Amino acid sequence: MEMQKTPMWYRILELILGILAIALAVWIIALPTIAALYGIVLIFGFGLLFLGIQALLRGFFARELPGWSRALNIIAGILAIILAVIPFTEPILGAAMVLWFMSFGLLFYGLSMLMLGFAADVPGWYKALLILFGFIMMIIAFQVIWYPLWGLLFLTIMLPLGLIFGGFQLIISAAIGTKMGPSVEAQ
C-alpha cells in the first residue's frame, strides 16, 4: 500500500509555525531583560497554541499512526491549547506560572515528538532526529520542573532553545512531507 505525503496546506502551516518559533526564539535572545518577561509570557502562550494546533492536526490527519498515538496527540493538543489561554487572560498569573506551563508544555511536546519518532513511517534519519529532539525537549522540561529558580534564571535560554528545536523539527517535517496514510490511487 503506497503512502502519500502530508497535504500541501499542512506542510505550509508547519513551515510557517517553524519559522515563527525560530523568530520568537531570536527575539527572546535579543531582549534578555526582566522587561521582556511579559513578552515571554505572551510568546509562551502563542507557542503552546501553535504546538497544540500541530498536535491536534497530527492526531486527526496522521492516519499511519496507531490509534493510541493519534488519541494522545489529540489530548496533548487540547491540553496545550487550554494552557495557552491562561497567559492571555491573566498575564500576572501567567508570569508567575510561566515556568510550570513552559516545562509541562515542553514535556508534552517532547512526548509528542517521541511518539511520532517511534510510530511514524518516516526516513530513519528523521525518526532519529524526532527522538533526539523529543528527549532534549523533555530534559529541558524536567530541568525547569526540578529547579524552578534555576529555570527562572535561564528562562531566556531554555525557552528559545525549545522554540529552536521545535521550529527546526517543523521546518524539516514541512520539507520532507511526512507520510500520512494510503494514497487515493492505492485504495
Structural description of this entry:
The N and C termini lie close together (8 Å). Strands 1-2 form a two-stranded antiparallel ribbon. The chain is mostly helical and 187 residues long. The protein contains seven helices and two strands, in the order βαααααααβ. Helix content is 81%, strand content 4%. The longest helix is centred in the middle third of the chain and has 29 residues, at 91-119. The protein has one domain (3-178).
What is this entry, summarized?
The chain is mainly alpha-helical.
Give the SSE map.
Layout: E1 3-5, H1 8-30, H2 37-61, H3 67-89, H4 91-119, H5 124-146, H6 148-153, H7 155-176, E2 179-182
Antiparallel strand pairs: 1-2
Helix pairs in contact: 1-2, 1-7, 2-3, 2-4, 3-4, 4-5, 4-7, 5-7
Individual helix count:
7
Which stretches are poorly predicted, pLDDT < 50 over at least 5 residues? 181-187
The count of strands amounts to 2
| Helix fraction by DSSP (H/I, runs of at least 4) | over 70%
List keywords for this structure.
187 residues, mainly alpha, two-stranded antiparallel ribbon, 81% helix, 4% strand, globular, disordered C terminus
